[in-house]
Amino acid sequence: MPELAAAVADLLDVADRQPERPGVLPVVQAGDPVLRRTAAPYTGQLGDVLPRLLEAMRRTMHAAPGVGLAAPQIGIGLAIAVCEDAGVPDDPRDRGPLPYRVLVNPRYEPVGEDAPAPDGTDAGDAAFYEGCLSVAGWQAVVARPRHVRLTCRDEHGAPVQEVLSGWPARIVQHETDHLAGRLYLDRAETRSLATTENLLRHFGADPDPGRAARALGFELPDR
């Protein structure tokens, strides 16, 4: 077995032997250099270990809980991510469901006027509070394109090209950014930064960041 595949298999073996949360991997936190390196393209380095890794990533994502997880977040510098979100009906963030999927070597590009969004809504950015499993306990407002075209391969190596909108588009952008060594904080409005506790205490469960913008003194893009 190649060296990297053997190291990942050992990591998974240790996780499987945990008595409390078997198969759940520790999530690397901000400040670890692995989160700031560009992940290596996946070219089959893990062989038969890949399905085990993906299952462990999915289990870890659910346990956190979160809606996405990139391989660098568990200390593995490969361009692989998983994501899944049940969605929230009638949510102003357009939080439609995102079925479970694997992103291998993903990239994205905003969908602009030359390629109208499938739901007929405007192109441009949407700004909402965003968090990260690797920046535990904090959230900040990030403006991201509402619609993106995702290009990647799935876990079987099949090509994927899809236009995503709303919150699913945000998830894909967030996880793909991890693979380029970027955290959401790199794109965030820094005056919006808040602990999750303070966000709930002062602004409640309202996902619209307008009240926070007025109270904390930052501007939102035209929406």
UniProtKB/TrEMBL annotation:
This is Peptide deformylase. Its cofactor is Fe(2+). Binds 1 Fe(2+) ion. Fe cation binds at residues 132, 174, 178. GO terms for biological process: translation. Removes the formyl group from the N-terminal Met of newly synthesized proteins. Requires at least a dipeptide for an efficient rate of reaction. N-terminal L-methionine is a prerequisite for activity but the enzyme has broad specificity at other positions. The keyword Aminoacyl-tRNA synthetase does not apply. Belongs to the polypeptide deformylase family. It catalyses: N-terminal N-formyl-L-methionyl-[peptide] + H2O = N-terminal L-methionyl-[peptide] + formate. PANTHER family: PEPTIDE DEFORMYLASE, PEPTIDE DEFORMYLASE, MITOCHONDRIAL. InterPro entries: Peptide_deformylase, Peptide_deformylase_sf. Pfam families: Pep_deformylase (PF01327). It comes from the Bacteria. The keyword Protein biosynthesis applies. Keywords: Hydrolase, Iron, Metal-binding, Protein biosynthesis. The active site is at 175. Its EC number is 3.5.1.88. GO terms for molecular function: metal ion binding; peptide deformylase activity.
